[in-house]
Every structure is written in C-alpha cells, then in structure tokens.
Amino acid sequence: SSPGTDNRWRHVRRLLERAGPLGGPEFEPDPELFSAIRSDLVQILVVGAGGLGCEMLKDLALSGFVNLHLIDMDTIDLSNLNRQFLFRPKDIGRPKAVVAAEFVERRVSGCRVTPHFGKLEDKPLEFYKQFMCIVCGLDSVQARRRLNQIVCSLVQFDESDQPIPTSVIPLIDGGTQGFQGHCRVVRAHATPCLECTADLYSSTQQGFPLCTLAHTPRLPEHCIEFARIMQWPQEWPFGEEVMKTE
Ligand SMILES: [Zn+2]
C-alpha cells in the first residue's frame, strides 16, 4: 500500500501490533490483526443509531472496519440534531439507520454500512449469527434484554457441555444518562450476562435526559427536575446543609 494509506492507519496499527496495559492477558499483538479488520469477513453489527450509535459507527469506520451493519427502528426528529451529528435538517423524517449509513459511506472511503430500518425482533435469529461482534448503544433496558437473550440463545455446546467459542458472539453494551456513561462486554457463558446483573439497571427509568429538561420540558415532572437539579443549587448553594442543621 502507498505511504499515504499507511499513515492513515498508523494509530490503529500501533494498538494492534504492540502489547499494552489495555490489551488484556489473552491479547496477542500481531501485524495480521490489522488486515483482519480490513477484511470483509469481520462483520460487525451496531445496534441503535442515536446519540451513542452515531459515535460508535463513526469510530468503527475510522478504526478501519469495512463491513458494518446498523439497525435502528427510529426516524430522525428535529430534537436529535444537536447531538446525533450524522443527521441534517433535510434528513428529518427519514430512517436513522439509512441516513447514518449513507453519511459514513460518503465520508469514509472503503467502508460499507448496511442499514436495517426496524426492530430487533423483526430479524430472525439466523440474522445475528453472521456477526463477529455486536455493539449496542440503546436507551431502552427492554431492548437490551432482548439483545442479551439473542446472543445467549445463539451459544452452542460441545459433547462435554462446554460453549463452542465460535458460537459466542461478544456483546458490547454502552449506555448514557445525562453526563454518566457505562460500557461493558458480555461473552455469554464466560462473563455475567445482562440478566445476571439486571439489578444494576433500574427497572423504571429514573431521571430525565438533561437536554429534555433544558430545551423541551413537557411534563410537570420535567419542571420539578429542572428546579431540583439546576435552579435549587443556584438559589440555595448550601441548601441541603442548611436544611439538615435546622
Ligand atoms: Zn446471565
């Protein structure tokens, strides 16, 4: 390849071809890893094309992956545009998956993104088998649980009841709430799955997105939260301590 191409992927190669503190005990640095990423055979599914999904799709494309799939059931709304940066005003009303795929294909040469406009359950189990990894940026706990169930049910076992490694699809689950975020990796039957740790997620979603409170409060609860989170600290900077001592 030309020197220009080498330079483009310099940073990714550095991660893949050297050992490092973030690599983990099973990671073996290898120059071949980069050509694996650039191969059509490494097919990755991104679930969700919202705030997190847009970022992840961009990151994967810029990391050199060339065969991405994207699934999302939503269409673009005006209120998405401040953070879902792959969308423009002219895209309002169109499916997020389709528009995001078009944008990334246009911007990152050599990267192919196949969009799927619809729900997770619209796809047969067979559909999910083709991916080497599933990366998820969803805001719904229910949809996460469904995805978790999908990857767990795809696992096959050998005669001694050990999971067959090639049937285990790693699920990388990301989520945000306000300024907080989390990311975890689930490898079915090797690490706890989402159901094992369901207590970590609140069953009823508590709190509201800060952008909703600031820009489009539309419920009495939003106004109360706005007063509690933003106005109270301004009016009563030491309010809680005063209340305790009184
Ligand atoms: Zn589990």
Automatic annotation (TrEMBL):
GO process annotations (BP): protein neddylation
Highest taxon in the source lineage: Eukaryota
Catalytic residues of the enzyme: C211 (glycyl thioester intermediate)
Transmembrane segments: none
Every THIF-type NAD/FAD binding fold domain range: 42-214
PROSITE patterns noted in UniProt: UBIQUITIN_ACTIVAT_2
Name the UniProt record assigns to this protein: NEDD8-activating enzyme E1 catalytic subunit
